[in-house]
Amino acid sequence: MGESSGPKSPEGKARIGRNGWNGGTRVLLRELSRVLRGQRDRLKEPSFD
What we know:
It contains two helices and no strands. It is an all-alpha fold. The N and C termini lie far apart (77 Å).
């Protein structure tokens, strides 16, 4: 038997196109958490307006 020549349907092509995507969400969520924590801390500080 020969080797697979890849997906033929649009759905299969879309699915295979995401194979190399490893996310990167952990780094993004870590940065978002850091920013939100900083904003929360600034909101807790007394205001001298």
